[in-house]
Amino acid sequence: MKKCGLTETERVEYAAADGSPEIPVLEVTLTRPDMEESVQTKAIIDTGFDEAMLISREVRDELVKSGIKPDDHDSLDAGAYEIPCEVYLLQVKVANRWFRIRGYHAVVGEYETLIGRMIANQLTICLRGIEKKTVIAERAV
């Protein structure tokens, strides 16, 4: 078998989920210039989510505590209906890479923090299901 030529840069344990199998996650840091302290959390990898990030109520509350207000309001298409959202312009660190994103917070319902395809498609993510670990890799030099 041929080696893939990748070097592991980060390894994160899957998160526990009530009544479901463990979930692949990545550790993320969210910030912006007008924040004194960044927010750190785990985000579920959601390949069905088109955008960069959906932020949970807990993360949104941390932004609000830092004096951050929504930069915009928009909605996310969820098939048969649209979800109204607050939009926050954020800088997000995932696996030692920074991304400038529009982070969505659904104003109705309860959602976990999700990483969508706008970020996931820019990373090499290996899901080690048997080990219950998410691995980020880069090309070996």
Structure in words:
It is a single chain. It contains 2 helices and 12 strands, in the order E-E-E-E-E-E-H-E-E-E-E-H-E-E. With 141 residues, it is mainly beta. Strands 4-5-10-6-9-8 form a 6-stranded mixed β-barrel. Strands 1-12-11 form a 3-stranded antiparallel sheet, with no helix packed on it. Strands 2-3 form a two-stranded antiparallel sheet. The two termini are 20 Å apart.
What is the topological layout?
Elements: E1 6-13, E2 15-17, E3 20-23, E4 25-31, E5 39-45, E6 53-54, H1 57-65, E7 72-77, E8 82-94, E9 97-106, E10 114-115, H2 117-120, E11 124-128, E12 133-139
Parallel strand pairs: 5-10, 6-9
Antiparallel strand pairs: 1-12, 2-3, 4-5, 4-8, 6-10, 7-8, 8-9, 11-12
Mean pLDDT: 92
Q: How do the strands of the widest beta sheet line up side by side?
A: 4-5-10-6-9-8
Q: What is the helix content?
A: under 10%
Give the class from helix and strand content and strand pairing: mainly beta
Distance between termini? 20 Å
Q: SSE string, helix = H, strand = E? A: EEEEEEHEEEEHEE
Quote the beta fraction: over 45%
* Broad shape: globular
Total helices: the number is 2
The low-pLDDT segments are none
- Report on the biggest sheet: 6 strands, mixed, barrel
Number of strands: 12
